[in-house]
Amino acid sequence: MAFPVQFLCKGLRGVGLVLLYYAFSIGITFYNKWLMKGFHYPLFMTLTHLTVIFCLSALTRRAMHCWTGKPRVILNWTDYLLKVAPTALATALDIGLSNWSLLFITISLYTMTKSTAVLFILFFSLAFKLEESNPFLIVVVLLISSGLFMFTYESTQFNLEGFVMVLLASFIGGIRWTLTQILMQKSELGLQNPIDAMFHLQPLMFFGLFPLFLFNEGVSISTSEKLFRVTELSPLLYSLCTLSIGGMLAFGLGFSEFLLVSRTSSLTLSIAGIFKEVCTLLLAASVMGDKMNALNWLGFTVCLCGISLHVALKTYYSKNKVPSVRQLSSRSPELELPLLQLSRYDAEDSAAGGYGDEEEITLH
Q1: pLDDT, tens digit, for every residue of 16-25?
Q2: 219 to 222, 238, 241: CA distances (angstroms)
Q3: pTM assigned to the model
């Protein structure tokens, strides 16, 4: 009798973690879109998010230090600037352009276009020899590409400027996750824990994105009555609070991904991510009024088939590989394992987790 109860508890825990991941992941997409309707400074919003994430990760590191008694990793300046900076810059541009695109395009087009990041991840993984080539990858590329074409063809709510921004973000996202995998596999850096990785990435991301913010939004935001030219305190506090909530959602997204993978598996996150896209588009159509015709839905279905095939192939090949030096045990006392199954969708942050027994680090 103990076995069914234990199995039920494990199942309920998995469902709860998936729902928590959905709440943060879908929530931050809709929240940012809602915020962009009245606050037209996406880069400043992103900088605020990075500041909030840095503060929360610093507090979490402090709490983990008090709990375990072990000092947290602090990189020296040489490693920090030479090895972490490229990943931070790519991540900042990915997130910044993704948020910027929400000024121009619908959530449905944003979600669909960001799904193509897997193509760029595959390309850069092959280029950096992190991925082994096989003929099925051609089918994956064709399915996702044709799905995107059908989704955008004759779309009534298509915006070229926003589409180019989010497509460029997906391209940079391919570089981002490839560099993230390389960074987190360097065990000598000690950034396998997602909290430590976020703590070190945020400052460089902030300074990497700041010049673009100054060039594009610096003058306009300095004269905005919402922030720097307020006549009353309440509008300023309202703006800062709404921006900070987005930062907390971004931090929660990264942490929920970490919990989901460490307590279940990377495959669970991959499958949950696919169904999350379906939920996002359904909500966008019903809540935000996004218009989608039959061809758009067909394109979305074809794209999901491509992503599903990629997940299935990764699972199959990872199960049949001989353990390598890049494998990490999931029995670490702090679950300090890199999650590289991070979705392109989100646009907002890295997380880490365990892989059941022992699985090789993979990209999705």
Answers
A1: 888 898 899 8
A2: 5, 21, 22
A3: 0.76
